[in-house]
Amino acid sequence: MQFIKTALFLLLTIGCFGTSFxxxxxxxxxxxxxxxxxxxxxxxxxxxxxxLTAEQATTITSVFVQMVKDVRAxxxxxxxxxxxxxxxxxxxxxxxxxxxxxxxxxxxxKAKQKGKE
Length: 117
What we know:
This protein is an all-alpha fold. The protein is built from four helices and no strands.
């Protein structure tokens, strides 16, 4: 009986750890989707017809996911806090530049600016 209890406890513990690791990836993706939705809402507030296409939304979400992973990796590299912060800011700036200049159209950029006012 003791063996069964121990085995069940170990299985439950392993299951809990497995789900917590799986949720980390989904949290990043969920956060990226929320950022993409927020961006689309800002665009739609400026011009109701200039919203993101499904392809653009998917691409932007993947850019944001990669940005979060890169920021976390920069934090894990160690070093001085100022260097880490600067590296993270550079990563974020490059990701936002890619979204605004390479993925979004000129009309969408103008609509976003107008929607933020």
